[in-house]
Hints:
By secondary structure, the chain is α+β, with helices and mostly antiparallel strands. Helix content is 24%, strand content 54%. The protein has a single domain, classed as Immunoglobulin-like (Sandwich).
Amino acid sequence: MDKNKEIVDSLNHKVTINERKSIILSGIKKLNSFDECEFFIDSIMGPLVIKGNNLELIKLDTFQGVLSIKGKVNSLSYLDDNKKNKTAENIMSRLFK
């Protein structure tokens, strides 16, 4: 298990957005949650939120740390660690209303 963590941590973080219709990310540690409007991701550069419309998971390779999403991308935001905890709480509260 530690070997997998070392492989992911050694990857570079790269974001490629193609005409706001698709996004490919490398250096991904974990996909925490997602729906058609929002993806909440842990990257090697910190927590990341992608917002948009009709977002779909195309590919997730946690071994190589690659994530592909299609749909209209409206925003991409990196969060502080404090905001990560608040976002996780908000997601959980929305799920269990």
